[in-house]
Design brief:
Radius of gyration: 16 Å
Shape: globular
Helix content: 25-40%
CATH superfamily: Vaccinia Virus protein VP39
Strand order of the largest sheet: 3-2-1-4-5-8-6-7
Length: about 240
């Protein structure tokens, strides 16, 4: 078995947030603000990659999806509603328990497992890992594990903070400092630049299809943008 991507202290940190993960005004409120932005990008790339009609309500029907670092299911549930057969994995058992409970209450059949991606068998049409790579033991090993679980015509989508002074200011100094994000969530040394990500992707046998920023402004809040200084999304496929 491959060496685990899980960092125990990270799993403990996020597991402690399980109680109010689904509360849009709770400790994970920032994720609730991020999720619609991510979903807009995900939907766009689902349509582009598989040449689908953007008006289709269930574009992932007949396709499998793996969400790595799924938390309590904020992304898994929309993917299921888009028609995918969804598997969500997370290092924190507390989050998986919360995910299962919430999905049951919504009548959604989602497979949840408390484990690292290395323990997942099979391949998936869509693999997502949102705000995860900056929390793993080895980013390159993590990307290789994602690549191994990506079907030949599959699509990989991930997001992560950029390695900039702007990202450190907004994400750590301000957001964590003023309680918008729980303290200790981020380590600037683990942030990856788009250039660094492109190299890592290539080393992992992946090719970058697209990168787009997630920016913030007082008038628009979090939104998709050409400005990647704060955070960015990546679409990738097998090289």
């Amino acid at each position: 078995m491959s060496e685990t991507s899980i960092v125990a202290r990270e799993a403990e940190h996020f597991g402690a947030l399980a109680g109010d993960w689904w509360d849009p005004k709770g400790k994970s409120a920032m994720l609730h603000r991020l999720n619609p932005v991510r979903l807009g990008y995900i939907r766009d790339w689902i349509d582009q990659h598989w040449h689908l009609d953007e008006r289709t309500l269930r574009p992932l029907s007949g396709k499998s999806a793996l969400d790595v670092g799924c938390g309590a299911g904020l992304l898994c549930e929309p993917l299921a509603r888009l028609g995918a057969e969804v598997t969500g994995v997370d290092a924190a058992p507390e989050l998986i328990a919360a995910a299962r409970e919430h999905a049951a209450g919504q009548g959604l059949a989602i497979t949840y497992r408390a484990c690292g991606v290395e323990e997942v068998e099979g391949q998936f049409d869509l693999v997502t890992a949102m705000e995860v790579i900056e929390h793993v033991a080895s980013p390159i090993a993590f990307l290789r594990s994602l690549a191994e679980r990506l079907a030949p015509d599959g699509l990989l989508l991930l997001s992560t903070p950029n390695r900039t002074a702007w990202a450190r200011l907004l994400t750590i100094t301000l957001a964590e400092g003023f309680g918008q994000i729980p303290r200790g969530t981020h380590d600037y040394d683990m942030f990856i630049s788009p250039e660094g990500m492109t190299k890592l992707m290539g080393d992992a046998g992946l090719k970058v299809l697209d990168m787009e920023g997630i920016a913030w402004s007082p008038t628009r809040g979090l939104h998709l943008s050409e400005d990647m200084r704060l955070n960015y999304l990546v679409a990738a496929a097998r090289a």
